[in-house]
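In response to the reviewer comment on reproducibility (Comment 2.3), we provide here a single inverse folding case reported in full, input and output, so that an independent group could reproduce the run without further information from us. The structure tokens appear first.
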């Protein structure tokens, strides 16, 4: 059996959580492969909205195994809160949630360093979620980090003290003082480690490969989006992990030869949180309408998302990088009342037209648009693809023809039930 991969093809917030939840009945194992509590995967069913930050989106299916992979960074305090929220709903995640021993821990000092670095950037701020993600991955690469397996080591306190000293020396050197009660912060952090220890800590690379050998169906769940990838995103306005399909191999310990479907999630328009280039961004009433209709506010930060038209230049770049085999189109219902809808098909740069996504994007990039007639119909009430309005099906067909890969699922609303599966 091959490992299937699900990830975002834009700047994140494409609706990955809902789609993982929809697909989970077809899989035996759901495994998160990168990112941390900067993710906010939203699921809606039975009239209740759920937001997951670290835990895989298959957790609401009690008969499925969920794994937090080695590529994930974990804030135990956030994790503890997520577990408490699940238990309030009557879910017992201890039964089917496993954690990689090799996943790295986010310390309170990581978040303070994150805030310090962002403050130092001034007008060049990246727009960090300030969750400590970047500094944690920095320590990981610099071989200074603490891993989940360290919690049960006999010299854990010594290891913790060593990294704590390095962090505080850096904070003192930069005259940064956190506005928090340190005693309470660290008591809370150490207490939350006990929640982590309630779960089975595993060598996830061995377990995932064993499941594949046993012909179990495994879905790798990505966080953020391709255009936020540390290598291939709009650097430096990116996240600190590899959000692309290759990240599933390193984030779970699976060989490239063992990968199968690559399912790319794409929003019917584009959004972005934080700073960084965004060629199709709308600054007018249309952009505001997209934001209001789509409830475009960050699930993790609550910040308003920047909104713009679908960008095929960026999308085709993402498809190429990931080797996407199919797409899932989400949130088209947000544009139900639009008279005219646009898609960017090319960029104009220095009087030249290109369909390549440039390494550096600046204000000189002018998007070239193709207009479509709006469908002016409530998509959420439609349950079969054939019954979708012709104008919307033309929109879908154009995207498929331009990208060369099929749209296998169409999401027509936020609820689990508002989904049309074509394949």
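Designed residues, in position order:
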């Amino acid at each position: 059996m091959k490992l299937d991969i699900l990830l975002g093809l834009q700047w994140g917030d494409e609706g990955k959580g809902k789609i993982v939840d929809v697909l989970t009945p077809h899989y035996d194992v759901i495994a998160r492969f990168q990112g941390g509590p900067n993710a906010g995967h939203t699921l809606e069913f039975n009239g209740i909205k759920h937001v997951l930050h670290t835990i895989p989106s298959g957790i609401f299916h009690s008969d499925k195994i969920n794994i937090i992979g080695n590529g994930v960074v974990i804030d135990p305090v956030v994790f503890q809160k997520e577990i408490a929220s699940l238990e309030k709903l009557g879910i017992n995640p201890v039964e089917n949630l496993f954690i990689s021993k090799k996943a790295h821990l986010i310390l309170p000092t990581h978040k303070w360093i994150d805030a310090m670095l962002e403050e130092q950037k001034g007008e060049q701020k990246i727009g960090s979620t300030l969750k400590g993600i970047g500094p944690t991955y920095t320590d990981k690469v610099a071989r200074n980090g603490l891993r989940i397996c360290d919690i049960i080591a006999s010299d854990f306190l010594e290891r913790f003290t060593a990294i704590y000293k390095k962090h505080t020396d850096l904070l003192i050197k930069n005259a940064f003082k956190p506005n928090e009660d340190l005693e309470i912060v660290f008591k809370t952090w150490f207490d939350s480690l006990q929640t982590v220890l309630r779960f089975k800590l595993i060598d996830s690379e061995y377990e995932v490969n064993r499941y594949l050998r046993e012909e179990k169906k495994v879905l790798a769940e990505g966080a953020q989006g391709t255009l936020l990838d540390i290598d291939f995103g709009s650097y430096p306005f990116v996240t600190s992990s590899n959000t692309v399909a290759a990240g599933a191999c390193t984030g779970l310990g699976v060989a490239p030869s063992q990968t199968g479907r690559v399912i790319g999630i794409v929003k019917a328009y584009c959004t972005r949180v934080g700073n960084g280039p965004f060629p199709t961004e709308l600054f007018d009433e249309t952009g505001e309408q997209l934001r209001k209709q789509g409830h475009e506010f960050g699930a993790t930060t609550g910040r308003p998302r920047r909104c713009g038209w679908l960008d095929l230049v960026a999308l085709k770049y993402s498809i190429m990088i990931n080797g996407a085999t199919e797409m899932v189109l989400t949130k088209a219902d947000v544009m139900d009342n639009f008279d005219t809808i646009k898609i960017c098909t090319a960029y104009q740069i220095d009087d030249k037209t290109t369909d390549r996504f440039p390494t550096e994007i600046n204000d000189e990039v002018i998007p070239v648009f193709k207009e479509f007639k709006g469908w002016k119909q409530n998509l959420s009430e439609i349950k079969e693809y054939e019954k979708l309005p012709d104008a919307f099906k033309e929109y879908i067909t154009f995207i498929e023809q331009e990208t060369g890969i099929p749209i296998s699922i169409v999401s027509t609303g936020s609820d689990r039930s508002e989904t049309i599966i074509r394949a």
